[in-house]
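Bit of a strange request maybe. I'm writing a small parser for structure token strings and I need a real example to test against, not something I typed by hand. Could someone generate the tokens for this chain?
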Amino acid sequence: MAFAIHRGYLPGCIGRIAELHARYYAGASGFGLAFEAQVASELAAFCTRYEDGRDGLWLALLDGRVEASIAIDGRHAEREGAQLRWFIASDALRGRGVGRQLLGEALALCDARGYPRTRLWTFDQLLAARHLYEAHGFALARTERGAQWGTPVNEQLFVRERP
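Reply from user aminoacidic:
Good idea to test on real output. This should exercise your parser:
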């Protein structure tokens, strides 16, 4: 089955992206309600203030259903760097190249806009994601212990300087 990439908001995508995150991270890391609520509320706020060209949201659709996503929040890009957020793929698309394609689309926006850097927060248990980030020019900038999602993890800041 082939997937399609859609740029921008689609009805239901906020809930679906929050669901993808909640289900994956509950199983992988024990994250619960606080995590899901924060994903949903921050994503809803992002979609509400979204400015085409400054920001980006890409959705991978399989049979019309959101199965993967990535976003670039350019609101503070000049001061802090653009922030890569809500990068996830369902089991239906994981391992099929969708992550590489979505990440390429997101970074192409950052490069076209001339953002000085792109940053993202993740944690050290996500080794496949780290490999993908490093393959696209991100480097680990900082690690700190955190428990904001209810489970202690080593949070990591990755930064990609403009090529």
